[in-house]
């Protein structure tokens, strides 16, 4: 058992040294040294709010189109079942609004 433990410790330490892991406890900063320096001002790194809003809107539109396509495909495959399903959902919605 001791021999196995000794061999496993040697193999693990050798693999850690081969991988180039820094196992010293002196470096407490989790970021690499390149990340500690700021090369660009913070305003240049942050995207504009309008750009983010446009991307978000485009993603919402894309999701909506995908849902519509899936619904159309389902309607084409099973027209009667789909209409019954949506009719039941509509009835449940009306009942929920009527009694709540």
In short:
The N and C termini lie far apart (70 Å). The relative contact order is 0.04. The chain contains 5 helices and no strands.
Name the features.
single chain, 5 helices, 0% strand, 100 residues, mainly alpha
Please outline the helices and strands:
Elements: H1 2-19, H2 33-36, H3 42-45, H4 49-77, H5 79-99
Helix pairs in contact: 4-5
Textual characterization of the structure:
This protein has helices spanning 2-19, 33-36, 42-45, 49-77, 79-99. It is mainly α and 100 residues long. The protein has a domain at 46-100. The radius of gyration is 30 Å and the shape is elongated. The termini are far apart. 0% of the residues are buried.
- Name the helicity range: over 70%
Q: Tally the beta strands.
A: 0
What is the string of helix and strand elements? HHHHH
Share in β-strands: under 5%
Low-pLDDT stretches: none
Note the total helix count. 5
Shape: elongated
Oligomer status = single chain
Structural class: mainly alpha
Average pLDDT metric: 78
The radius of gyration is 30 Å
Ends apart, CA distance between termini: 70 Å
Sheet having the most strands: none
């Amino acid at each position: 058992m001791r021999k196995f433990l000794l061999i496993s410790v040697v193999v693990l330490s050798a693999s850690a040294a081969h991988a180039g892991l820094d196992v010293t406890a002196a470096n407490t900063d989790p970021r690499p040294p390149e990340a500690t320096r700021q090369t660009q001002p913070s305003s240049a790194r942050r995207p504009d709010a309008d750009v983010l809003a446009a991307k978000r809107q485009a993603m919402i539109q894309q999701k909506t189109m995908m849902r519509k396509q899936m619904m159309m495909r389902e309607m084409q495959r099973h027209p009667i079942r789909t209409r019954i399903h949506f009719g039941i959902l509509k009835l449940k919605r009306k009942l929920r609004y009527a009694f709540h």
